[in-house]
């Protein structure tokens, strides 16, 4: 076998191998019925959003009276904010 024939044989073998792999991949993808659907994913996202909102609401109700006024006061003290009227007048 010459070098040209050897190279042609190698290219042909690689092309056949790639075609065989793509056919097998397509066959597996089309015949498989496992996996998640769009509705399953949407429901999971909706549940996560609702649970997150409930958690934030609960934390706000539990700590809103103690943390938020102190936080607002410390921010006002830190930046020396006296209001727009005090700054201009």
3D structure, described in words:
The protein is mainly alpha-helical and 89 residues long. It has helices spanning 3-31, 38-63, 67-79, 84-88. The longest helix has 29 residues, at 3-31. The model has no long low-confidence stretch (mean pLDDT 80).
How do you describe this structure in short?
The protein has four helices and no strands.
Structural class from helices and strands?
mainly alpha
Instruction: Tell me the number of strands.
Output: 0
The number of helical elements comes to 4
Portion in helices? over 70%
Unreliable spans = none
Biggest sheet statistics? none
Overall mean pLDDT stands at: 80
Radius of gyration: 33 Å
The arrangement of helices and strands along the chain is HHHH
* C-alpha end-to-end distance: 98 Å
What percent of residues are in strands? under 5%
Shape: elongated
Core attributes:
elongated, 0% strand, 4 helices
List the helices and strands and how they pair.
Blueprint: H1 3-31, H2 38-63, H3 67-79, H4 84-88
């Amino acid at each position: 076998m010459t070098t040209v024939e050897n190279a042609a044989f190698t290219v042909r073998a690689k092309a056949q191998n790639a075609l065989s792999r793509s056919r097998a991949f397509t066959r597996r993808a089309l015949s498989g019925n496992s996996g998640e659907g769009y509705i399953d994913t949407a429901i999971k996202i909706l549940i996560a959003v609702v649970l997150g909102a409930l958690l934030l609401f609960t934390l706000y109700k539990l700590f809103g009276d103690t943390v938020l006024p102190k936080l607002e006061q410390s921010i006002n003290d830190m930046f020396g904010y006296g209001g727009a009227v005090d700054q201009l007048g």
